[in-house]
Amino acid sequence: MTDVRTALKRGLARLREAQVPSFTLATELLLLHVLDRDRTWLYAHPEEQISAADAERFFALIGRRANGEPTQHLTGKQEFWGLEFEVPPDVLIPRPETEHVIEVALDRLALRELRAGRKQTLTGEGLQIADIGTGSGCIAIALAKELPAASIYATDISPAALAVACGNAARHKVADRVRFLEGDLLGDVPPLLDLVVSNPPYIGRREAATLMREVRDHEPEIALYGGEEGYELYAELITQAAAHLKPGGILVLELGHNSLPAVQPLLDATSWTNVGVTNDLAGIPRVLAAERT
Ligand SMILES: C[S@@+](CC[C@H](N)C(=O)[O-])C[C@H]1O[C@@H](n2cnc3c(N)ncnc32)[C@H](O)[C@@H]1O
Question: CA 41 to CA 129: how far, in whole Å?
Answer without folding.
Answer: 41
